Amino acid sequence: MKSLKTQRSRRTSVEMRERTEVRDRISNEVQRRDLRNLEISYPIAETFYSLQGEGFFAGIPAYFIRVAGCKNRCEFCDTKETWNAENTDRQTAEELAQQAFDSGAKTVVITGGEPMLYDMQALCYALKTKGLRRHLETSGSEKLSGEWDWIALSPKQNIPVHKEFYEKANEIKVVIANEKDFVFAEQQASHINSNNTHLLLQPEWNAHKEITDIIINYIKQHPQWRLSLQTHKYLQIP
């Protein structure tokens, strides 16, 4: 009996070692693939170190990587210069991660444009290896890619959102230009099943003087929402 138990124990030990070796080989291959992908480049409209001006993390220091290219063409967009990615300087994932790290920031915000037009896996990997938090700002109009610490979904009217963003978004930020936009905001909130997703209403900048008080009153009556202001515009910082 003792010999049989010993044989079984040895077989179990060998099987565990083999599984570990297979797992390590797969992990090493994934790492080698990701390291090769660090040479993937992205069209970059601008990069800068500033304070996050809006949303749940308003006020924290962050390094911003603004990707060029967007199909949505929102009327109230305040970065229309990023719509066209042609003739835009490209930078590799490794270059962008090093710049972010050198800035001293702990958090990196990937924004646009629409970042999800591109596969963000390489950039996310490069930032993660530098120990940096990765925050995404997106309309949800394209498929999700990359590994994120925080996803800020800002849906736009008449632009379908991929279902996975409703499942994975940490915050939903809806821009309000008039009272009709509250209906759209509630429609978007209805797609969220998690109580951990933060719901924010943000005045459209060109209408903020007229609409902010209306939003405040709406939030008082619908306390599941909170207010987001574009504080960077008030402060006149990037």
Structural features, described:
The protein is of the alpha/beta class and 238 residues long. The chain folds into two domains: 1-37; 40-235, Aldolase class I (TIM Barrel, Alpha-Beta Barrel). It contains seven helices and nine strands. The protein has a nine-stranded mixed beta sheet with strand order 3-1-2-4-5-6-7-8-9. Strand 6 (150-153), helix 4 and strand 7 (171-176) form a beta-alpha-beta unit. Helix 2 (93-103) packs parallel to helix 3. The longest helix is centred in the first third of the chain and has 36 residues, at 2-37. The protein is globular and about 55 Å long. The protein starts with a helix and ends with a helix. 32% of the residues are buried. The model has no long low-confidence stretch (mean pLDDT 90).
Q: What's the order of the H and E elements?
A: HEEEHEHEEHEHEHEH
The parts where pLDDT drops under 50 for at least 5 residues are none
Beginning-to-end CA distance, first to last residue = 75 Å
Q: What does the overall shape look like?
A: globular
CATH architecture level-2 label of the largest domain: Alpha-Beta Barrel
The CATH homologous superfamily of the largest domain is called: Aldolase class I
**Strand content bin:** 15-25%
CATH class of the largest domain: Alpha Beta
> Looking at CATH, which topology of the largest domain would you report?
TIM Barrel
Number of domains: 2
Tell me the radius of gyration. Answer: 22 Å
In total, how many beta strands?
9
Question: What level of helicity do the residues show?
Answer: 25-40%
| Computed structural class | alpha/beta
Helical region count? 7
